[in-house]
Specification:
GO terms for molecular function: O-methyltransferase activity; RNA methyltransferase activity. Pfam families: Bin3. Keywords: Cytoplasm, Methyltransferase, S-adenosyl-L-methionine, Transferase. Its main location: cytoplasm. The protein is of the alpha/beta class and 254 residues long. It has one domain: Vaccinia Virus protein VP39 (Rossmann fold). The chain is built from nine helices and seven strands; from the N terminus they run H-H-H-E-H-E-H-E-H-E-H-E-H-H-E-E. A seven-stranded mixed β-sheet has the order 3-2-1-4-5-7-6, with helices on both faces. Helix 4 links the parallel strand 1 and strand 2. Helix 7 packs parallel to helix 9. The longest helix has 23 residues.
């Protein structure tokens, strides 16, 4: 089980001071525009052409919400681009539930959210089944649903993997596959694992418990794709390319 971070861990300016990836001002490192610019406009409309009810989205590991809001704007055509805004009514209604292990980051997200009626932020350890299952079930029941239409897992897989090992990564991806019809994943490459471990050591902290025992290594985008397609009964719909910092953006469908 992933323990809740301390104030020192969540507020330290050094990324290595946040062993769950919950460092503040995360969006300043990889800005949201670097991800959302890879996604085609009208993506929700193309994935759900016949939807007549609000779409439900789940964003796991949302940090302080900047990327969640950017995704919401982009997917609903609310963000101006070089080709101009989408015509009125081109988007779909989206209810987005965003969760993170760090309550301080969630408080910041709640305070700054420009769409409080459509984007909900909640402090949740997604790996704690005792907390996760009643919370997600309660949220879905509000809409008479049993699953989410689309899930987002943006630079989260490494932190799950480092803190919960190979088994934890498999469980996490299996969970997302069971919860979401479509899943957008941005796996961190293996070099990021090494960098995260070096930062902890540089700060004089204990290494990640599972780092040296991991067997799922190497090309992490390929590994995540293999797990989701071969073990979780999902199919890879599309790769939207890679960000400037070499992270693939992959869309899967159950």
């Amino acid at each position: 089980k992933m323990a809740a971070p301390t104030s020192r861990e969540s507020r330290g300016s050094e990324p290595g001071a946040a062993p769950y990836g919950n460092f503040p001002n995360y969006s300043r490192f990889p800005p949201p525009e670097g991800r959302v610019s890879l996604l085609p406009r009208g993506l929700l409309r193309s994935l759900f052409p016949a939807a007549t009810r609000p779409l439900l989205g789940l964003d796991v590991g949302c940090n302080s919400g900047e990327l969640s809001v950017a995704l919401y704007r982009h997917l609903l055509g609310l963000q101006d681009g070089s080709s101009g805004p989408e015509p009125p009514g081109a988007g779909k209604e989206l209810k987005l539930l965003c969760c993170d292990i760090d309550p301080e980051l969630i408080r910041r997200a709640q305070q700054s959210s420009p769409f409080p009626a459509s984007i909900s932020f909640a402090s949740l350890d997604i790996m704690d089944s005792g907390a996760r299952e009643p919370f997600l079930s309660s949220y879905l029941q509000r809409f008479g649903r049993s699953s989410f239409d689309i899930g987002f897992c943006m630079s989260v897989t490494m932190w799950i993997h480092l803190n919960h090992g190979d088994g934890g990564l498999l469980d996490f991806l299996g969970l997302l596959a069971s919860l979401c019809t479509f899943l957008l994943v941005e796996p961190q490459p293996w070099r990021c694992y090494r960098a995260a471990a070096r930062r902890l050591r540089r700060l004089g902290r204990r290494d990640f418990e599972h780092f040296r025992g991991l067997r799922i290594t190497g090309d992490m985008a390929e590994s995540v794709t293999r797990i989701l397609t071969q073990q979780c009964a999902m199919e890879l719909v599309r790769s939207f390319g890679s960000t400037a910092w070499d992270r693939s953006l992959l869309l899967f469908r159950s």
